[in-house]
Amino acid sequence: MNKKTVRDIEVKGKKVIVRCDFNVPMDKEGNITDDRRIVGALPTINYLIENGAKVILMSHLGRPKEGYDAKYSLKPVAQRLSQLLGKEVLLAEDKEVVGENAVKLAGDMKEGDVVLLENVRFITTETKNDMEFAKKLASLADIFVNDAFGTAHRAHSSTAGIASYIPSVAGFLIEKEISIMGKALENPERPFVAILGGAKVSDKIGVINNLLEKVDRLVIGGGMAYTFLKAQGIKIGNSLVEEDKVEYAKEMLDKANKKGVKIYLPVDHIVAKEFKADAAWEVSKTEIPEGFMGLDIGPESVKLFEEAVSDAKTVIWNGPMGVFEMPAFANGTKKVAEALSKVNGTTIIGGGDSAAAVEQLGYADKMTHISTGGGASLEFLEGLELPGIAALNNK
Ligand code: AMP
């Protein structure tokens, strides 16, 4: 990685402001129902504490629309963090985030102390990369550390703008994300296989185009597969299709052919007449009859996709193989997760639905890396520069 990390700078006695992703799910009473994002931030926070920094943390939580809203306060996160770190984390309770309390707490800090600012999205212009707000955040500290990969594809005051004012480096989470995904894209062990699924071709156009330059095999499942099948002249009944992307799908199939990339598309389908969890379903070979829609890949496709990854040395997976939220149509996604858990090589799950599926099925510890950012990892796989990473200092 060509960006500086916390290891490359002296942090002792310095005030270090860290952008974390504490956007954790909570129930109606404000209890955190899954603290993995907080746990994920601990290596960077502990490193800073152990090395004598004064640690100021910041994050967004949810989408407060009109400024301060107690419902979106980071108070529960401060409490959970205190438990996890075994030391008090003080919340700077300012409705304007950088207010009297934040300034006072930051001013009084000793080495190893930890302060958490309020939800940065209480400032509505945070997501517009408001430079005034960025400057206020920067004024609290000597060094900025970005460790929130999930928002690194957005130029916000707390992810990008702040880096204009103070030296800025990556935390361990971001370092891990870009070194593992970066190596896969730049210097993969082969065979290198990408598996793409999910609803829309249009969301993944850039990813498909970029990955065709890199992979040996591209597996396409989920709703997006039907646009490709249609491009091949295969009947797809009432399945999800993006008519205006059929031409693009043809171009991509041609590109794959020219590049020698083998494309795997479903050869059979679990079909139903209705998009409903309890719809009667059947297996349809090759073509889908009128009146039916494909909601999952069929058993032969599962076998084919398993073969595609069986000898792979690098696999990247993004997007479910079917409507996995409905148990009747979750088999393809489950089987792909299982196949990946057996791969003898690097396996990277690109966040979002596929990460959720892998975690639910208990395969998380079998994967090399599960990205903490769905949108960010897609943009990374697209070959785009992420503003929250581009803004950090080079080595
Ligand atoms: P994405 O956000 O693009 O990764 O798409 C995820 C969504 O795609 C999930 O909610 C799935 O239910 C949906 N999906 C996957 N396969 C199909 C399909 N065959 N038909 C309709 N929706 C699908």
From TrEMBL:
EC number(s) of the enzyme? 2.7.2.3
- What are the protein's UniProt keywords? ATP-binding, Cytoplasm, Glycolysis, Kinase, Nucleotide-binding, Transferase
Location comes to:
Cytoplasm
Q: What molecular functions are annotated in GO for this chain? A: ADP binding; ATP binding; phosphoglycerate kinase activity
Q: Which Pfam families match?
A: PGK
Q: Which CDD domains match?
A: Phosphoglycerate_kinase
User: Mind telling me what this protein is named?
Assistant: Phosphoglycerate kinase
Q: Which species is this record about?
A: Caloramator quimbayensis
